[in-house]
């Protein structure tokens, strides 16, 4: 994980050593502040260039995906569709388990508040996240709904924008399933250490994805490279990504909100009467 040659890691696409090196550089830049402003500005501006380049590439992507999918299905026939359907079903099932079992349990366990009450009021936010496929675009609605649920703005105005950027379990779920889908498609057998690498990298990849439509696809490259998988299967996933993005954005937003309610509760920043609908303004 610690690079002996950071430039070599960068050139060879070894993502984890590269990320660790970037984190160290970022940490040092934040300590040295003014002394290294030039370098910090360089990275900030270079980041803008890369984002612009990505936007241009994504504009061309639909044509490329159309051609790649047409050629894949023309060569492999309908046989190629079945594994894709299984992949979609697997992602949606995992997302349902996370949202119907894990999150309500966490809410109950840490706060004893009613998950049903929460979902009743929060469902419109989930619908908005589902249709906009953007956690960032959902932030204002999430904040408003949490305040109607009695969560103090002091907590939500910090944790919701932060969560929309770094807390993306929908992405981690989808990326984990995508790696399994790819390894099975290529007939590869992953060992335990590769599986642990996948879990670790999928979490980092989901943290690094922005809360915008299809961001997970971009960070998925890093995951595939970390276990030495060819990248071409990502183009097949891209063809159905918008559909999956709807589900994962909804669960990303749900995760941010549930964690915010828990943090607010633990810090006495939640009005339980308002949450339970006893005193709704
Ligand atoms: N669209 C997702 C979000 O905004 C990110 C992604 O899964 O690509 O949360």
Q: Could you explain the architecture of this structure?
A:
By secondary structure, this protein is mainly alpha-helical. Helix 8 (169-185) crosses helix 10. The model has no long low-confidence stretch (mean pLDDT 87). The protein is built from 13 helices and no strands. Helix content is 80%, strand content 0%. It has helices at residues 6-11, 15-32, 37-76, 81-111, 115-132, 135-148, 153-166, 169-185, 192-208, 215-226, 232-239, 241-266, 272-275. Bound molecules: aspartic acid. The site of aspartic acid has 17 residues, from helix 8, helix 10 and helix 12. Aspartic acid binds at residues 133-135, 168, 170-171, 209, 211-216, 245, 248-249, 252.
**Distance between the terminal alpha carbons, to the nearest Å?**
52 Å
The computed structural class is mainly alpha
Any low-confidence stretches, pLDDT <50, length ≥5? none
Oligomer: single chain
How many strand units?
0
Helicity range of the residues?
over 70%
Q: Strand portion, in percent?
A: under 5%
User: Overall 3D geometry?
Assistant: globular
Order of helices and strands: HHHHHHHHHHHHH
Q: Largest sheet, if any?
A: none
Task: Provide mean pLDDT, rounded.
Answer: 87
Any ligands, ions or cofactors bound here, and which? aspartic acid
Radius of gyration: 21 Å
- The number of helical elements comes to 13
């Amino acid at each position: 994980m610690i690079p002996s040659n950071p430039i070599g890691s960068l050139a060879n696409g070894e993502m984890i050593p590269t990320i660790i090196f970037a984190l160290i550089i970022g940490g040092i830049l934040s300590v040295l502040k003014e002394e290294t402003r030039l370098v910090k500005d360089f990275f900030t501006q270079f980041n803008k260039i890369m984002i612009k380049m990505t936007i241009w590439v994504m504009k061309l992507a639909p044509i490329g995906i159309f051609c790649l999918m047409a050629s894949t299905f023309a060569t492999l026939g309908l046989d190629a569709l079945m594994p894709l359907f299984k992949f979609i079903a697997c992602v949606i099932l995992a997302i349902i388990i996370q949202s119907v079992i894990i999150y309500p349990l966490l809410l109950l366990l840490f706060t004893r508040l009613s998950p049903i009450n929460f979902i009743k009021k929060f469902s419109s936010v989930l619908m908005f996240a589902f249709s906009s496929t953007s956690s960032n675009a959902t932030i204002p609605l999430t904040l408003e709904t949490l305040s109607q649920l009695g969560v103090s703005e002091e907590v939500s105005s910090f944790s919701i924008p932060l969560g929309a950027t770094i807390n993306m379990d929908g992405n981690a779920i989808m990326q984990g399933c995508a790696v399994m889908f790819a390894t099975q498609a290529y007939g590869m057998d992953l060992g335990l250490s590769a599986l642990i690498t996948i879990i670790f990298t999928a979490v980092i990849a989901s943290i690094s994805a922005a809360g915008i439509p299809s961001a997970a696809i971009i960070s998925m490259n890093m995951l595939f490279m970390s276990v030495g998988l060819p990248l071409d299967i990502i183009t097949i996933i891209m063809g159905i990504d918008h559909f999956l993005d709807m589900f994962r954005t909804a669960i990303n937003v749900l995760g941010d909100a549930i964690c915010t309610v828990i943090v607010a509760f633990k810090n006495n920043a939640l009005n339980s009467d308002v949450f339970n609908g006893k005193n709704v303004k």
